Amino acid sequence: MPDAAPRLKGLVEQMVGAPLPLRIRAWDGSEAGPPTAPTLVVRNRRALRRLLWKPGELGLARAWVAGDLDIDGDLYTALDLLAGIVWERGEDARTLAQALRDPEVRSAVRGLLRLAGPPLPPAPPREEARRPRRHLHTRSTDRRAISHHYDVGNDFYEIVLGPSMVYSCAYWPAPDSTLETAQRDKLELVCRKLALKPGQRLLDVGCGWGSLAIHAAREHGATVVGVTLSQEQAAYARKRVADEGLTDKAEIRVQDYRDVRDGPYDAISSIGMAEHVGAERYLEYATDLHRLLRPGGRLLNHQIARRPQRDESRYEVDAFIDSYVFPDGELQPIGMTVTQLERAGFEVRDVESIREHYALTLRRWVANLEADWGRATQLTGPGRARVWRLYMAASALAFEHNRIGVNQVLAVKTPESGMSGMPLRARTWN
């Protein structure tokens, strides 16, 4: 009689010391667990070997990406429930070592090893990037990291992002608004915060597929230079600019922001790009942007932030994100971002948290992906599509639960006269 699921349920509960909140369906067809809960589908024994070899986030991610694990039921509910039984990120080795001192845990591990069977360990899925020992953030490593994430295929991104082709947090007038409306409102918000006027020069750092460059040129009469490290993004953005008849107003370059030399600019936007800069390079990033602005020019820095830790020296990047999504990416608390911008010479004038907006945005992206799943897997492969579904759904929950946030920081290169040019009443953005 098939019994893998009840055996697995019992061993996991013995290990974690609590009831398993998910239902399990095992490779032999057996099921166990709460009948109304989402079902964790364990397709083969290899899934157990992945989790035993990397007991935590990375092992779970490898099993998911390879298709060894799946969820039958609401993905968001399942991820919330799983979060309570996965080893704490950044604490895997120490937490497991402490847990193994318990005879019950050791007995459960032995039982799981017998159930998993040989061999150990399975090779990581091919979608996993090679992780450097440390985050170098040289021009070459940044270029490779950007290519891993953004050169997946423009057709795939069209499915996920929709017609707006904006890959950053939208700005929602209401939860039931369309994604396209919310993204247009975000682009307009950025332009108003920068107080763009006809003829002014805007540098868009990390310009993506050109949406902000087009909006700023078409709606505000700005002359825009957009820079990206992604060849695919640049080709797509250039075609969009040409189709809009804006080639005299918007230029798209494949260029590192550190190599831009044609300042000064009246304004700089950096939307969802600074997460790739790295903590060690952040002051250099801020200093370079300060150098490129004219006195009185404004910077709008839109960036995801993590929560600060009591001991920052022990902070470790998310293993799944670093291996499968944003190799070499780093988040830092908003306080560190503001400090580094001011160290570079900026005067920070406004910080707006739009955390809930990103949760709404991510849920729409997941819905877009799921609605065209068959074509998405044809375009990029099932493993890569599974990476994206997991990463976006988990990120939506992280924003909803206040584990991470996103902020727009408006800063000014204030002239020696001290006249910032900002309105007396904040957030009128005139």
TrEMBL record:
Source taxon at top rank: Bacteria
Pfam family, one: CMAS
GO molecular function per UniProt: methyltransferase activity
Any Gene Ontology biological process: methylation
Domain Polyketide synthase-like methyltransferase span(s) in chain numbering: 156-389
EC number: 2.1.1.-
EC class name: transferase
Keyword presence, Cell cycle: no
Family: Belongs to the CFA/CMAS family.
Protein's UniProt name: Class I SAM-dependent methyltransferase
Organism: Streptomyces bullii
